[in-house]
Amino acid sequence: MFSTTAYAGAPVYFTNEVDKKYRALIKHVREMLPSTERQLAYLPSFYPFSLLDVRPTKLNKKHLRDFSNFNFGVFGRALLNIDKKQLSNLPSIAICKEQKCKNDRIARIEQFLKDSAEEIKGISKSDSLLIVQQTTPNVYRINNTFFSPTQLITYYPSKHAGFAPSGNYKISTPEQSPDMMVLAQASQKLRSIMAKHNVAAITKAADNSINVIFGGLGDNHWGVVLYSKATTPNSGDYNHIGLEYDIVQKIIRPQLLLSNRLERVMTRLCQSEI
Predict the structure, then answer these.
(1) Whole-structure pTM over 0.90, yes or no?
(2) Are 77 and 83 in contact (CB under 8 A)?
């Protein structure tokens, strides 16, 4: 089922090498996730920067967006046990256009920023923490390593498209990965605050801006961006992971920017641009 779906409507940028690497990822996922008849059992694995939210880091921005939908369709049809219409409607749960909804999200953003100020400041100064994602307190991702109580799986981006996760990986135990366990310990308080506020992932971009993603599926995310030196994005602009801004709204306390497909925040903390 995975192989058949992957061939159907493959993107134009899928060269033979890219196709080969994507199939290696499909094989790995098939081995990792046992089959189930339960609907939406694996939905948390599709949340931003979780196992099935695959990011091809070497594609251009337009192809990044296209791939996000393609990948969600491939794994969603194979693993979520829902019909095609239900699947196509799932990513829209992140979309928020009514003012009350926006106000509620702004309040959540502000409270999270208040509770996590010291931890966010620590990430801004860290050269080691680039991605922090949490599915449960015991199942989480730091950079390209996925943690569980008994093992770590570290993924290496594929050569041509840069898939992460990918079919190229190393499995180790916590005892065999002391450096990664140091990062796990360093991020523990932040992950606890993320769980309290239902934050899906925090990522650090090449320009040292920090993206706090509260939720989303496919190419629809919402969250905040801190420490950004970029100008205010316009509708139609792309963010650093190739998703397109939809709605941009300025927030007063603190001075924030908000958009639907990765709702975005820019403000100032201490003397640094956020």
Answers:
(1) no
(2) no
Alpha-carbon torsion, ordered 158, 160, 163, 164, to 10 deg: 50
| CA-to-CA dists, residue 215 to 4, 48, 74, angstroms | 30, 7, 20
Residue 165's alpha-carbon distances to 37, 54, 55, 126, in angstroms, are: 25, 6, 7, 23
Q: Give the span between the Cα atoms of 129 and 110, in whole angstroms.
A: 23
Residue written as token pair 């081995």? 31
What is the rounded CA–CA span in Å between residue 124 and residue 122? 5
pLDDT per position as a tens digit, 42-90 = 999 999 999 999 999 888 877 888 898 899 999 999 999 999 999 999 9
Tell me the residue ranges of DSSP E strands in 163-217.
Answer: 163-164, 169-172, 201-204, 210-217
